[in-house]
Amino acid sequence: MTMRKNNNRLIGLTVLAVVIMHILAESNLLAPIWSRILDTAASLLIVVAIAYIALGKHANVSILSGSRRELTATSQQISSVNLLGGTKLYLGPGDDQVVIDASFINIMGGGDIYLPAGWRVEDHSLKLLGGVTDKRGTHVTGPAPTIRVSGFLLFGGVTIRELPQAAISASS
What we know:
Layout (H helix, E strand, L loop, with lengths): L1 H25 L5 H25 L3 E4 L2 E6 L4 E8 L2 E6 L7 E9 L2 E6 L4 E9 L2 E4 L11 E9 L2 E6 L2 H7 L1
Parallel strand pairs: 1-3, 2-4, 3-5, 4-6, 5-9, 6-10, 7-9, 8-10
Helix pairs in contact: 1-2
């Protein structure tokens, strides 16, 4: 419990530092070069804070890059942070008891989830000029393996796609 309290305090102090740095950068108290340096430092601090939070959750972090993960269909949690980057997740077949929680923080980034036929998708994400799109031909509503998409999507999104036939053959 103490660890959680310390992390919350650290996050709060980071947000306060970024706000103060941004206010100073926008004021007329500093020379223009120092204002730009301070504003850049505030932006970098935000990126580092997001990465720190994500790594604490053992997440994939893609900043100006991409990543790819192949997952077995067992009940688990996946976390992914994409800042001007993307993540591709490939899942194999699963039984009706399988539930996978996929948490995304996408800021001008995206995620693609490739599923074999027969998976059910639940969307629990918070979207701001972003979204979750299911581009598969068929949608399952009854008992089936389930993936729950959650997280925060800002100018980014998550796309659900059919698993390519080559990937299904390779995993068999």
